[in-house]
Amino acid sequence: xxxxxxxxxxxxxxxxxxxxxxxxxxxxxxxxxxxxxxxxxxxxxxxxxxxxxxxxxxxxxxxxxxxxxxxxxxxxxxxxxxxxxxxxxxxxxxxxxxxxxxxxxxxxxxxxxxxxxxxxxxxxxxxxxxxxxxxxxxxxxxxxxxxxxxxxxxxxxxxxxxxxxxxxxxxxxxxxxxxxxxxxxxxxxxxxxxxxxxxxxxxxxxxxxxxxxxxxxxxxxxxxxxxxxxxxxxxxxxxxxxxxxxxxxxxxxxxxxxxxxxxxxxxxxxxxxxxxxxxxxxxx
Length: 284
Prior knowledge:
single chain; four-stranded mixed sheet; globular
Protein backbone atom coordinates (compact mmCIF):
# COMPACT_ATOMS: atom_id res chain seq x y z
CA UNK A 1 0.00 0.00 0.00
CA UNK A 2 1.07 3.54 -0.73
CA UNK A 3 -0.42 4.85 2.49
CA UNK A 4 2.75 6.61 3.61
CA UNK A 5 3.53 8.23 0.28
CA UNK A 6 3.23 11.98 -0.13
CA UNK A 7 1.03 13.30 -2.87
CA UNK A 8 1.79 16.75 -4.18
CA UNK A 9 -1.04 18.17 -6.34
CA UNK A 10 -0.01 19.53 -9.73
CA UNK A 11 -0.42 23.25 -10.37
CA UNK A 12 -3.17 22.44 -12.87
CA UNK A 13 -5.13 19.21 -12.48
CA UNK A 14 -5.17 16.86 -15.46
CA UNK A 15 -7.72 14.11 -15.96
CA UNK A 16 -6.20 10.64 -15.62
CA UNK A 17 -8.63 8.31 -17.36
CA UNK A 18 -6.92 5.30 -15.81
CA UNK A 19 -7.48 6.38 -12.24
CA UNK A 20 -8.91 2.97 -11.36
CA UNK A 21 -11.71 2.01 -9.04
CA UNK A 22 -15.23 0.87 -9.70
CA UNK A 23 -17.19 3.26 -11.94
CA UNK A 24 -13.97 4.91 -13.16
CA UNK A 25 -15.02 4.16 -16.73
CA UNK A 26 -18.11 6.39 -16.44
CA UNK A 27 -16.63 9.25 -14.44
CA UNK A 28 -15.44 12.33 -16.31
CA UNK A 29 -14.86 16.02 -15.55
CA UNK A 30 -17.21 17.35 -18.24
CA UNK A 31 -20.97 17.47 -18.73
CA UNK A 32 -23.19 16.95 -21.74
CA UNK A 33 -24.22 14.03 -23.92
CA UNK A 34 -21.65 11.62 -25.33
CA UNK A 35 -23.99 10.02 -27.86
CA UNK A 36 -27.40 10.38 -29.45
CA UNK A 37 -30.05 8.17 -27.91
CA UNK A 38 -33.76 8.84 -27.63
CA UNK A 39 -35.59 7.72 -24.52
CA UNK A 40 -38.50 5.28 -24.71
CA UNK A 41 -41.92 6.71 -23.90
CA UNK A 42 -44.85 4.86 -22.35
CA UNK A 43 -48.55 5.60 -22.15
CA UNK A 44 -48.71 7.42 -18.83
CA UNK A 45 -48.21 11.12 -18.14
CA UNK A 46 -45.34 10.41 -15.75
CA UNK A 47 -42.20 8.99 -17.33
CA UNK A 48 -39.40 7.93 -14.98
CA UNK A 49 -35.90 7.05 -16.15
CA UNK A 50 -33.99 5.51 -13.28
CA UNK A 51 -32.15 2.71 -11.53
CA UNK A 52 -32.88 1.11 -8.16
CA UNK A 53 -30.06 2.82 -6.29
CA UNK A 54 -31.08 4.73 -3.14
CA UNK A 55 -31.80 7.90 -5.13
CA UNK A 56 -33.97 5.97 -7.56
CA UNK A 57 -35.78 4.06 -4.81
CA UNK A 58 -36.88 7.30 -3.15
CA UNK A 59 -39.00 8.22 -6.14
CA UNK A 60 -40.46 4.81 -6.95
CA UNK A 61 -41.45 4.35 -3.30
CA UNK A 62 -43.31 7.67 -3.37
CA UNK A 63 -45.05 6.83 -6.65
CA UNK A 64 -46.13 3.46 -5.31
CA UNK A 65 -47.32 5.07 -2.06
CA UNK A 66 -49.42 7.55 -4.06
CA UNK A 67 -50.95 4.68 -6.02
CA UNK A 68 -51.58 2.85 -2.75
CA UNK A 69 -53.70 5.84 -1.72
CA UNK A 70 -55.80 5.35 -4.84
CA UNK A 71 -54.39 8.32 -6.76
CA UNK A 72 -54.68 6.92 -10.27
CA UNK A 73 -53.06 10.01 -11.80
CA UNK A 74 -49.78 8.85 -10.24
CA UNK A 75 -49.54 5.93 -12.67
CA UNK A 76 -46.15 5.93 -14.32
CA UNK A 77 -43.81 4.21 -16.72
CA UNK A 78 -40.34 3.45 -15.35
CA UNK A 79 -37.48 2.70 -17.71
CA UNK A 80 -34.07 1.37 -16.71
CA UNK A 81 -31.04 3.63 -17.08
CA UNK A 82 -27.96 1.41 -16.98
CA UNK A 83 -25.30 3.73 -15.59
CA UNK A 84 -22.62 1.08 -16.06
CA UNK A 85 -23.26 1.26 -19.80
CA UNK A 86 -23.36 5.08 -19.82
CA UNK A 87 -27.09 5.41 -20.58
CA UNK A 88 -27.11 8.58 -18.47
CA UNK A 89 -24.97 10.30 -21.11
CA UNK A 90 -27.43 9.72 -23.94
CA UNK A 91 -28.88 12.86 -25.51
CA UNK A 92 -32.46 12.06 -24.49
CA UNK A 93 -31.55 11.59 -20.85
CA UNK A 94 -29.32 14.67 -20.72
CA UNK A 95 -32.22 16.72 -22.13
CA UNK A 96 -34.17 15.90 -18.95
CA UNK A 97 -31.25 15.88 -16.53
CA UNK A 98 -28.23 17.95 -17.60
CA UNK A 99 -26.39 16.55 -14.58
CA UNK A 100 -26.48 13.01 -16.06
CA UNK A 101 -27.49 11.35 -12.79
CA UNK A 102 -30.46 9.11 -12.13
CA UNK A 103 -33.33 9.55 -11.63
CA UNK A 104 -34.97 11.84 -14.21
CA UNK A 105 -38.69 12.52 -14.44
CA UNK A 106 -40.84 13.93 -17.22
CA UNK A 107 -44.42 15.00 -16.54
CA UNK A 108 -46.25 15.10 -19.85
CA UNK A 109 -49.47 16.29 -18.25
CA UNK A 110 -48.28 19.92 -18.43
CA UNK A 111 -47.75 22.26 -21.38
CA UNK A 112 -44.92 22.16 -22.13
CA UNK A 113 -43.94 18.91 -20.38
CA UNK A 114 -42.20 19.47 -17.05
CA UNK A 115 -38.78 17.97 -16.49
CA UNK A 116 -37.64 17.32 -12.93
CA UNK A 117 -34.16 16.23 -11.93
CA UNK A 118 -32.62 15.65 -8.50
CA UNK A 119 -34.47 13.08 -6.41
CA UNK A 120 -35.35 15.52 -3.63
CA UNK A 121 -36.93 17.89 -6.12
CA UNK A 122 -38.97 15.00 -7.52
CA UNK A 123 -40.27 14.09 -4.08
CA UNK A 124 -41.41 17.65 -3.44
CA UNK A 125 -42.87 18.02 -6.95
CA UNK A 126 -44.91 14.82 -6.74
CA UNK A 127 -46.01 15.36 -3.14
CA UNK A 128 -47.24 18.85 -3.98
CA UNK A 129 -48.82 17.76 -7.25
CA UNK A 130 -50.89 15.07 -5.57
CA UNK A 131 -51.29 16.62 -2.12
CA UNK A 132 -49.82 13.79 -0.06
CA UNK A 133 -46.89 12.96 2.23
CA UNK A 134 -45.85 16.62 2.63
CA UNK A 135 -47.45 18.67 5.42
CA UNK A 136 -49.04 21.98 4.49
CA UNK A 137 -48.99 23.58 7.96
CA UNK A 138 -45.89 25.84 7.91
CA UNK A 139 -44.06 24.45 10.95
CA UNK A 140 -44.72 20.83 10.03
CA UNK A 141 -43.71 21.50 6.43
CA UNK A 142 -40.48 23.14 7.58
CA UNK A 143 -39.65 20.10 9.73
CA UNK A 144 -40.28 17.77 6.80
CA UNK A 145 -38.22 19.85 4.40
CA UNK A 146 -35.41 20.08 6.95
CA UNK A 147 -35.13 16.30 7.20
CA UNK A 148 -35.41 15.95 3.44
CA UNK A 149 -32.58 18.38 2.83
CA UNK A 150 -30.61 16.83 5.69
CA UNK A 151 -30.63 13.62 3.69
CA UNK A 152 -29.70 15.36 0.45
CA UNK A 153 -26.77 16.98 2.23
CA UNK A 154 -25.61 13.82 3.99
CA UNK A 155 -25.73 11.46 1.00
CA UNK A 156 -22.39 12.60 -0.46
CA UNK A 157 -20.66 11.73 2.82
CA UNK A 158 -22.32 8.32 2.90
CA UNK A 159 -22.10 7.35 -0.78
CA UNK A 160 -19.42 9.42 -2.44
CA UNK A 161 -17.30 9.51 0.71
CA UNK A 162 -17.64 6.38 2.83
CA UNK A 163 -19.02 4.10 0.13
CA UNK A 164 -16.36 5.08 -2.37
CA UNK A 165 -13.31 4.79 -0.16
CA UNK A 166 -14.50 1.74 1.79
CA UNK A 167 -15.94 -0.30 -1.08
CA UNK A 168 -14.99 1.08 -4.49
CA UNK A 169 -11.59 2.78 -4.42
CA UNK A 170 -8.76 0.75 -5.99
CA UNK A 171 -6.78 0.94 -2.74
CA UNK A 172 -7.82 1.33 0.88
CA UNK A 173 -6.40 4.27 2.79
CA UNK A 174 -6.89 4.79 6.50
CA UNK A 175 -7.38 8.54 6.51
CA UNK A 176 -10.39 8.86 4.14
CA UNK A 177 -12.03 5.71 5.50
CA UNK A 178 -11.70 6.98 9.09
CA UNK A 179 -12.86 10.44 8.08
CA UNK A 180 -16.04 9.27 6.38
CA UNK A 181 -16.75 6.44 8.82
CA UNK A 182 -16.78 8.97 11.63
CA UNK A 183 -19.25 11.13 9.73
CA UNK A 184 -21.53 8.24 8.76
CA UNK A 185 -21.68 7.04 12.34
CA UNK A 186 -22.45 10.56 13.49
CA UNK A 187 -25.30 10.74 10.96
CA UNK A 188 -26.64 7.39 12.15
CA UNK A 189 -26.50 8.70 15.70
CA UNK A 190 -28.45 11.81 14.68
CA UNK A 191 -31.18 9.57 13.25
CA UNK A 192 -31.12 7.14 16.15
CA UNK A 193 -31.48 9.82 18.82
CA UNK A 194 -34.27 11.53 16.90
CA UNK A 195 -36.19 8.32 16.24
CA UNK A 196 -35.94 7.30 19.88
CA UNK A 197 -38.56 9.96 20.61
CA UNK A 198 -41.03 9.49 17.75
CA UNK A 199 -42.27 6.97 15.21
CA UNK A 200 -41.26 8.82 12.07
CA UNK A 201 -38.87 11.66 11.32
CA UNK A 202 -41.65 14.26 11.53
CA UNK A 203 -43.66 12.72 14.34
CA UNK A 204 -46.64 10.45 13.84
CA UNK A 205 -46.96 11.04 10.11
CA UNK A 206 -45.00 9.19 7.42
CA UNK A 207 -43.67 11.70 4.88
CA UNK A 208 -41.30 12.13 1.95
CA UNK A 209 -38.57 12.81 4.52
CA UNK A 210 -38.89 9.21 5.72
CA UNK A 211 -38.85 7.89 2.15
CA UNK A 212 -35.70 9.83 1.26
CA UNK A 213 -33.78 8.87 4.38
CA UNK A 214 -34.99 5.28 4.38
CA UNK A 215 -33.67 4.73 0.86
CA UNK A 216 -30.12 5.49 1.99
CA UNK A 217 -30.01 4.46 5.65
CA UNK A 218 -32.27 1.44 5.21
CA UNK A 219 -29.85 0.18 2.57
CA UNK A 220 -27.01 0.67 5.01
CA UNK A 221 -28.41 -0.87 8.19
CA UNK A 222 -30.80 -3.53 6.87
CA UNK A 223 -29.17 -4.67 3.64
CA UNK A 224 -25.45 -4.58 4.43
CA UNK A 225 -24.82 -1.61 2.17
CA UNK A 226 -21.22 -1.46 0.93
CA UNK A 227 -20.80 -4.77 2.84
CA UNK A 228 -20.08 -2.59 5.85
CA UNK A 229 -22.75 -3.59 8.37
CA UNK A 230 -20.27 -5.20 10.76
CA UNK A 231 -17.67 -2.49 10.26
CA UNK A 232 -20.20 0.24 11.12
CA UNK A 233 -21.80 -1.81 13.93
CA UNK A 234 -25.24 -1.00 12.53
CA UNK A 235 -26.96 -3.16 15.15
CA UNK A 236 -26.18 -0.48 17.73
CA UNK A 237 -28.68 1.89 16.09
CA UNK A 238 -31.77 0.16 17.43
CA UNK A 239 -34.21 3.01 16.77
CA UNK A 240 -33.07 3.33 13.17
CA UNK A 241 -33.53 -0.42 12.72
CA UNK A 242 -37.04 -0.25 14.21
CA UNK A 243 -37.95 2.59 11.84
CA UNK A 244 -36.54 0.76 8.81
CA UNK A 245 -38.43 -2.42 9.72
CA UNK A 246 -41.72 -0.53 9.96
CA UNK A 247 -41.18 1.20 6.63
CA UNK A 248 -40.21 -2.01 4.87
CA UNK A 249 -43.45 -3.64 6.05
CA UNK A 250 -45.37 -1.24 3.79
CA UNK A 251 -46.51 -2.91 0.53
CA UNK A 252 -45.76 0.23 -1.50
CA UNK A 253 -42.18 0.26 -0.23
CA UNK A 254 -41.76 -3.40 -1.11
CA UNK A 255 -42.91 -2.65 -4.65
CA UNK A 256 -40.92 0.57 -4.97
CA UNK A 257 -37.68 -1.18 -4.05
CA UNK A 258 -38.10 -3.56 -7.00
CA UNK A 259 -38.65 -1.01 -9.76
CA UNK A 260 -35.69 -0.66 -12.15
CA UNK A 261 -33.75 -3.25 -10.19
CA UNK A 262 -31.60 -5.42 -12.43
CA UNK A 263 -29.56 -7.40 -9.88
CA UNK A 264 -30.16 -9.78 -6.99
CA UNK A 265 -32.76 -12.56 -6.81
CA UNK A 266 -35.10 -12.59 -9.82
CA UNK A 267 -38.18 -12.23 -7.64
CA UNK A 268 -36.85 -8.89 -6.39
CA UNK A 269 -36.22 -7.47 -9.86
CA UNK A 270 -38.50 -5.40 -12.09
CA UNK A 271 -36.48 -3.99 -14.98
CA UNK A 272 -39.33 -1.83 -16.28
CA UNK A 273 -42.61 -0.86 -14.70
CA UNK A 274 -45.72 0.14 -16.68
CA UNK A 275 -48.63 -1.09 -14.56
CA UNK A 276 -49.41 -2.70 -11.24
CA UNK A 277 -49.69 -6.07 -12.96
CA UNK A 278 -45.97 -5.98 -13.77
CA UNK A 279 -45.20 -6.91 -10.16
CA UNK A 280 -46.98 -10.24 -10.64
CA UNK A 281 -45.21 -11.14 -13.88
CA UNK A 282 -42.10 -13.34 -13.95
CA UNK A 283 -38.82 -11.39 -13.98
CA UNK A 284 -37.57 -10.67 -17.48
